[in-house]
Design goal:
Distance between the termini: 167 Å
Number of strands: 30
Length: about 550
């Protein structure tokens, strides 16, 4: 509602009219005046009420103004907070923008790298295609192809799998030299057919072949042919041959591991290496070297860290040189055998037999009889005189620990009439330090004198030398009635077990305690600077 408040002019007019009445009042005037006063009073009352309403409205307006002021203050604070939040948000947006820009740059770089990688993949794919072509056409592969392409892996454990792999290895030779290695993965191969044979293409030489298993007891071959025979047969066939990383077993005493024939009629076997190999079970022989009247080579053989198992039995010998199908002087061309750091344990049989040939070097190792109930065992057997072949009749044994366990476990039985035998820094007393009266009777080193040039020269022996030898039992010389006039035995710095109390051993007085004994003609012998044997010399 709108209230009209009287103006100053209207109050002034009313005051004039009142004054006039006071000066000349009349009843009519008074009535009029009274009515005017009443009317004015009513107006004033109304105006007072209006003023009161205005005051109330003013108070409400004041309160509203205060509330508005408070609201404005709150809004101002909220606006300030909002400004701070906006500022922080703006900063964050700025940072985020920088990050997005950086990530965008990285994405661009990654895109570039991806493009490069796609290019590289394309190049690699091309190279892979080339490599696949090279593998497919391996026979024409140039030098520098990845080594894996030089290997052929047997795919299976059967005769057929082995034969297939061998066929691949022997094909594509460069001249006589193979271009691949034959690999047998770990596992057990029960084979009945030879892995290498000379029944075909007998006179074609094959050079540089390596046959490799993972290792002893990991790659195992059980050799059990329907008809006993060799697992490897090489007739004038293999040079520079290596086999390593196998255990090979046989249960038939007529089986052979390798049978080699060499002569001058078109080919030969030479330079074979057996490394990290083990043989066990019953064999006729492991390696047989043979040839006729034109025999040649079968030479330069190495046994490196090889082993035989405790059930090993050799009906003929672990290795036999000559005399298998006949004995010929030309077999003395079978020369140069090296045995390094091997552990040979034998249940019964002979380890190395040289009917002909020789020049043998043994370095380190442990050679043992499996037990004291089985035998006989002989580690070196030279059954023939071979008197005019000094270069073949050579044996040098250094740092080998022999373990004979009874009287028929013989270290050497040698019938060479010439040549040389040497044992240096060896020991054969480890398992025989029992009752001296018993073990003194064991003749573990045996030599037989020969008479190749008649009684005018007398008996002959190799030049035998023992240096720093730790012995047990006694050494003995047998043979011809005539005294030995060539060769003889020399002991330098040696020991012979005669008990644990420092007992001496007589040199050669014919007693049961003597270190050297002989029958028939006296040998030439000398003991010098020995541990428990006095110096002694019988040399003429």
């Amino acid at each position: 509602m709108s209230v009209q408040v009287p103006t100053t002019e209207e109050f002034d007019e009313l005051a004039v009219r009142v004054s006039a009445l006071e000066q000349a009042p009349s009843s009519d005037c008074c009535d009029d005046l009274a009515q005017a006063v009443e009317s004015t009073a009513l107006q004033i009352a109304a105006q007072g009420a209006a003023v009161t309403g205005v005051a109330q409205l003013a108070q409400q307006a004041l309160e509203a103004s205060q509330a508005a002021t408070s609201a404005v203050d709150g809004a101002t604070q909220a606006a300030a907070a909002a400004n701070v939040a906006v500022s922080e948000l703006d900063q964050r947006l700025t940072t985020a923008g920088d990050t997005v820009a950086a990530q965008a740059s990285e994405i661009d770089a990654l895109a570039g790298r991806t493009t490069t990688m796609e290019t590289d993949v394309g190049v690699l794919s091309s190279r892979t295609t080339v490599l696949t072509d090279r593998v497919t056409n391996l026979e024409g592969a140039p030098q520098g192809v990845a080594p894996r392409t030089w290997e052929v892996v047997v795919q299976g454990y059967t005769d057929a799998a082995v034969a297939a792999a061998v066929s691949v290895v022997l094909s594509g030779r460069s001249g006589n030299a193979v271009q691949r290695k034959l690999i047998f993965p770990p596992g057990t191969y029960n084979l009945t057919k030879p892995i290498l044979t000379s029944t075909d293409d007998n006179h074609t030489m094959i050079e540089g072949l390596t046959v490799e298993g993972l290792g002893v007891r990991s790659t195992v071959i059980n050799w059990n042919p329907a008809t006993p025979g060799p697992m490897i047969k090489a007739v004038r066939r293999f040079r520079f041959f290596t086999m390593q990383g196998f255990t090979v077993r046989s249960t038939n005493p007529a089986n052979e591991f390798a049978y080699l024939v060499s002569d001058t009629s078109g080919g030969y076997n030479q330079a074979w290496t057996f490394r990290n190999m083990e043989w066990g079970g019953s064999w006729l022989r492991v390696v047989g070297l043979d040839g006729g009247s034109t025999a040649n080579l079968n030479s330069e053989f190495v046994f490196d860290r090889c082993f035989t198992q405790t059930d090993s039995v050799f009906a003929d010998a672990f290795l036999r040189s000559g005399g298998i199908t006949g004995t010929y002087n030309q077999q003395n061309q079978f020369l140069n055998y090296t045995v390094r750091d091997c552990a040979f344990t034998v249940k019964s049989g002979t380890m190395f037999r040289f009917d002909k040939g020789g020049s043998i070097t043994v370095q380190g190792g442990s050679w043992s009889a499996a037990n004291n109930t089985d035998g006989p065992v002989t580690w070196f057997l030279m059954p023939n005189s071979n008197s005019n072949n000094r270069s073949a009749c050579q044996l040098h044994v250094d740092r080998v620990r022999f373990e004979p366990k009874r009287s028929d476990h013989v270290v050497i039985d040698c019938r060479w009439g010439t040549g040389s035998v040497e044992f240096s820094n060896c020991c054969d007393l480890s398992s025989l330090q029992g009752d001296p009266a018993t073990v003194n009777a064991y003749g573990l080193h045996r030599y037989t004198a020969q008479l190749p040039w008649g009684t005018g020269v007398g008996g002959t022996l190799p030049s035998v030398r023992y240096v720093n030898h730790q012995g047990v039992g006694h050494h003995e010389v047998a043979g011809v009635a005539s005294p030995v006039g060539r060769g003889g035995l020399l002991y330098d710095g040696c020991y012979f077990y005669r008990g644990t109390g420092g007992q001496k051993a007589p040199a050669a007085d014919g007693s049961s305690a003597a270190a050297l004994r002989w029958s028939n003609g006296a040998p030439r012998v000398e003991f010098t600077r020995c541990d428990n044997v006095d110096d002694f010399k019988l040399w003429s």
